[in-house]
Amino acid sequence: MPSLTGDIINRVRRLPKPTSAAEALQPMFEAVSNAMHAVDDLGRPGRIDVTITLGAKPSEHVITVLDTGVGLDPGRFEAFLTTDTDFKSNRGGKGIGRLLWLDAFESISVDSIYEHDGKLFRRAFNFVLAKNEQVQGEIVEELEEGSAASGTGITLRGLRGTAYQGKFPSRPETIVRHFGSHFLAEFILGQSPPVHLTVADQTVEFPGAIKDLLIEERGRSEIDAGEFGALTIDHFVFDKAASSDFDGNHQLHLVANGRTVTTRKVDGLLGVGRFGENARAVYHGCVQGDFLDERVNQERTNFNFSEAVADEITKVCARAVSEEALDDEVKAFDSSRLTTMNEFLQKYPSFGFASPEELLEKTPKNAVKPEQFAQALIPTRIRRDTERDRRVQEVVNKLGTGEALSGDFAELVRAAADDVKAEEQRQLTEYVLRRKLVLDVIELLISRVRERTGQDDFHLEETLHQFICPMRVRGDDSNRIETSDHDLWVVDERLTFATYFASDVPISQLVSEARSTERPDIVIWDKIHGLGVESEDPLKRVLLIEFKKPGREDYSERYSPLNQVSRYLNQLEKG
User: Can you give the pTM of this predicted structure?
Assistant: First the structure.
């Protein structure tokens, strides 16, 4: 009977191309994974040696993977020749790994020794990307008994294609980190033989390199994840260096058939930063279950479910981690966050619209700084203000219609008034605290100026100027955000909301006819708030401010403050 045939070239061409360093290393990871299975199948201790020679350019890279495993016997070789084979389906194998070799490398050679029917054989061939006869130059020969040990060597030469060449790491330490990260579950769960990785002149032994970073094992959790079935989580505490190649500190590794498929940061879900001695400890968990085993994609780079499902699995697992593996750390961290929240509310009372404990519930678990609290709480404050305004408006509308008022209307009015008053009180408190801080800083600056003599006099006077009002800006320039952040109320309370001012700006930019490049410290012509001017002409009346060192007496007649201000006024008046 006829059978279907496959187009290997098109099959390989349709494989996803790498978009990251980890994905570019995936073909090599597949070769190492096959070696792990081969050693496991042998039924006795073995080892794997991986050597990566980085050429002057990616097309000259060479990778060899040697194992002391069972070898390519006839059954395994038949599976090798069958695309999408189910030979390793019980281990999650998808029969796709060697196609990734063809996609990534220009040259592939295989040399394997195996036992069959009590005899020892060697099989060697080249594996090429072709429409037919992908196995070329095959040699099968019988060896003398005891002349060699079983095992397989795979040599991958020369990266092909811009995607692989562009994303493959060029630094040995980067390759080592990705290697340890990819096989972390196998290494830490004891599912791998010893692996010796040599990149350039650097050799690293796994799982020793991973276990050296292990601080503590925290046991296993078995959870009922509802629609996701039964999941197990193995908990580990590592030195922070174990997370150096990840986004974030704490990680959940989603494992399918003993291999890490994806890793997800859980910092925000656990609600704890680095912990332990010198804050060097981080958490890593390995999640396993039938739901994951059955839904890994053929490239073993992701799962065949949506990001929303992955998020939900991560949340369920993170909850178990917080309650069982990191219970003490989470409690200590929450206590520290509560202390920080109380300090934040003392400085910014306007956010105190609920108890500190309630406010913490409204912030992400990893929010630990005042700016993070503010960022999280601003939307809540806006919603509360909007709801309060709506209630007040309802009261106003009812009063305006003249309709009959319900018996509890007085209580509604009182509640609305109390809410408004409480909010205003919080904002006033924050404003007063800020003003006090500004005055305290200015007092220290002035004291510093009084005490110092010499070359930094001008610098300190400029610092005081900059603190009260940004320099080299005009307040009516909407493109300069600094203009809204002045403290001119220090000079005169009436200038609190001054908008029309110029700070250290040449007179020629204030009066079109003027040519003077002299820069008064501050010129104010705010006709509404500060100066009470009724005319529309902004320069009918102005206020000039000059900053001078307190107690200074060594002015020349020309540069005395009085003459300086008079000169500025004359230039402004006459254009």
Answer: 0.57
CA 141-144-146 angle, to 5 degrees, is 125
Backbone angles phi, psi at 355, to 5 degrees: -70, 155
The pair of three-digit structure tokens given for residue 549, joined into one six-digit string: 């060192």
174-192 b/e with 16+ CB inside 10 Å = b? ebbbbbbbbbbbbbbbeeb
Average pLDDT over residues 202-218: 93
What's the DSSP call for residue 223?
A: E
Pairing of strands 214-224, 230-239: antiparallel
What letter would DSSP give residue 369?
S
Strand partners, 113: 122, 151
What is the C-alpha to C-alpha distance for residues 465 and 463, in angstroms, rounded to an integer?
5
| Average confidence (pLDDT) over 502-523 | 86
Both structure tokens of 129: 């990307």
Structure tokens at 169: 């790491």
Mean pLDDT, residues 454-459: 56
Question: pLDDT tens digits, residue range 330-382?
Answer: 888 888 889 999 998 888 888 888 899 999 988 887 788 888 888 888 888 88
Amino acid at 491: V
Q: What is the residue-wise DSSP string for 451-500?
A: H--STTHHHHHHHHHHHHS-SSEETT-TT-GGGG---GGGT-GGGTT--S
150-208, pLDDT tens digit by residue? 999 999 999 998 999 999 999 999 999 889 888 888 898 888 899 999 998 899 999 99
Which helix (H) or strand (E) segment holds residue 471: the answer is none
Residue 94, pLDDT score = 41
Task: Count Cα neighbours of 344 within 13 Å in the Cβ-side half-sphere.
Answer: 25
In whole angstroms, what is the distance from residue 347 CA to residue 359 CA?
15
Residue 86 CB burial class (10 angstroms; 0-12, 13-18, ≥19) = exposed
Q: What's the pLDDT tens digit per position in 304-321?
A: 999 999 999 999 999 999
